[in-house]
Amino acid sequence: MTTELAPLGSGQMFDHIARRYDFVNRVLSFGMDLGWRKRAVRSLQLGEKPRVLDLATGTGDLAIDIARMHPGATVVGLDPSQEMLAIAATKLAKRGLTDRISLVVGDAQELPYRDCEMDAATIAFGIRNVPDRKRALREMARVVRPGGRIAILELGEPRRGFFGGVARIHCRHVVPKLGALLSGSREYAYLQRSIAAFPPPEEFATMMQEAGLHVIEVVPLSFGACTLYVATPAEDA
Ligand SMILES: C[S@@+](CC[C@H](N)C(=O)[O-])C[C@H]1O[C@@H](n2cnc3c(N)ncnc32)[C@H](O)[C@@H]1O
After folding, report:
1. Residue located nearest, by CA, to atom 16 of ligand 1
2. What is residue 237's predicted lDDT score, i.e. its pLDDT?
3. 107 phi and psi, to 5 degrees?
4. Most buried in the list 72, 97, 109, 123, measured by CB within 10 Å?
C-alpha cells in the first residue's frame, strides 16, 4: 500500500501537521516567529476600530496578535485547512477572543469580500503555499481600502554573510530532519524546499507591484531568514 501525500502546501497537507504545527514552528524558528508576527502587526499602523483580514491564518497566531495589540479590532482569519482552523478555534476560545476573531474556510486566490471592505490584510508564512501568488496579491489589493496596509511575512534562504550561512545550513539540513522528527511527518521536507524556492525579496516585491500594490518597505528580519513586506493598494491600479 502506498501512502499518498496531499498536494504540497495545500490545506490538506496542513491538515496532516495541524496538531503539532505550533510546537514545531516554535522549535524550528527558536521562538523568533513570535516577534516577527508582532513586527508585522505594528507595520499595519491600524486605527481605532479596524477590520483586518488574516489570510492563511492557520492556527491563528497572527490573528490573535492583531486582536490583542488592537483591542478595538475585529479580525477574519481565513484558511483552507479545517484542521488548522480547528486548533485556531480552540485557542480563540481559551483566550476569550471568539467574539472578535471569526474563522472562515477559504482560499487566498478568491476572497469572498467586496472591494475595499477591509482596513488591512496580512498573510504570514502562507503566500509561499498559494499556487497563483500574483492572484492572491491582487485579491489583497482589491479588498483593502485605499491607504490601508498589507503586511506579508515570508521565510527565505538568506544569501549573504556569516549569519546568512548559518541560517542557510539550518534551513537546508536542520528544518527537514528536526521537523520530521518532532512532527512525525514527511511534510517538513516540503517546507525546506518551498523556502529555498521562494523568490528573493526584490523579485517578490516586483511581483507585488505588478499585482497592484505599492510597496512601502521590505524589511529583512533575523539576518534575512524572514522578510516583512509592507504595502498599500496602488492608487492607479
Ligand atoms: C505555514 S502555515 C502559516 C500559518 C499562520 N499564518 C502562521 O503564522 O503560523 C501556512 C498556511 O497556509 C495555508 N494555505 C495553503 N494554501 C492556501 C491558499 N490557497 N489560501 C490560503 N491559505 C492557504 C495552509 O492551510 C496553512 O494553514
Report:
1. 10
2. 65
3. -120, 130
4. 123
Give per-residue pLDDT as tens, 160-192: 677 677 777 776 777 777 777 776 666 767 777
Q: Average per-residue pLDDT in the chain?
A: 89
- Count of beta carbons in the 10 Å neighbourhood of residue 162: 8
Atom of ligand 1 nearest to the CA of 56: 22
- 107-134 pLDDT tens trace: 999 999 999 999 999 999 999 999 999 9
Name residue, grid cell 517578490.
204
Burial 173-189 (b: 16+ CB within 10 A, else e): eebbeebbebbebebbb
Q: Does an H or E element contain 154, and which?
A: strand 144-155
Q: Nearest C-alpha to atom 13 of ligand 1 is from which residue? A: 56
Q: For residue 144, how far is its CA from the centre of ligand 1 (angstroms)?
A: 19
- What spacing in Å lies between the alpha carbon of 126 and ligand 1's midpoint? 4
pLDDT at 1 over 70: no
pLDDT at residue number 197: 87
pLDDT at 89 over 80: yes
Q: Who lines ligand 1 at CB under 6 A?
A: 9-11, 14, 55-58, 61-62, 79-81, 84, 107-109, 124-126, 129-130
Question: Which residues make Cβ contacts (< 8 Å) with residue 117, sequence separation at least 6?
Answer: 51, 143, 145
